[in-house]
Write a structure and sequence with these properties.
The protein is an alpha+beta fold. It is about 35% helix and about 25% strand. The longest helix has about 80 residues, at about 10-90.
Length: about 270
Amino acid sequence: MVTDYRTQFLHPLRSVLSIATYPIQILASLPGDSIKSMSDTVFSYVDLQKENQRLKETQLINAAKLLKLDALEKENIRLRVLLENSFQLGEQVLIAELLSVKLAAYEHTVVVNKGTRFGVHPEQPVLDANGIVGQVIRALPSSSEVMLITDPDHAIPVEVNRNGLRTIAFGTGLPNRLQLPFLAKNADIVPGDLLVTSGLGGVFPAGYPVAVVDKFETRPDKSFANIYATPKAQLETSREFLIVWSDSTPVFLGKDQAPPSPDTPEAEHAEP
């Protein structure tokens, strides 16, 4: 050691010995290096799993937000169509939203979120952006029940838009199906004819689309034809509706305005 320190005579020998002992040093450090590498790999894998889970949760949240935005966009489009149609109707209208659908057998009714405090009263016509939906049959302060035109107890006076032929369309209790039972088998009506409200009966103003004839059957032993039509309104999918006033009765826009006078027809149907 003294010789090496003072003369550095053994440096070449040290270099030769270092080459010979290098594999031993590698083998000696291998367990520690392996453990460290495995530990880093495990921690990296755990971190990647956590990050992957976080990214999945973020993706799910963003997907849900996109679905909501898509629904809001479609709702906005529907409302714009309703508003455009309300300007074209030339009558006072109020937009109402669907609250619930009555699920009783053969009863086709829905509940909307506008009632007597907005001036709504029974027998008011209800439309969507495509045609007649039905009429109000019960008005409560904050909601109203609407009978759809497909209800078996519903009847609406109509006329063939092509030639003015008048008849009555009845609900069948089936979705998207109306029946015209009082037309002779030689009546001037064919599949594809548009049926509109005739204005008779005093409930539905004239000229609103109701349905399109899609089936005309005749039987030799009967004087009347079996005629069926499909409603123009999207009865099973619409969520926004137009409640129509055909006179100058004011629409109450909210609770801050005065309620209907006790002498008005609207007040007769309001609950205490």
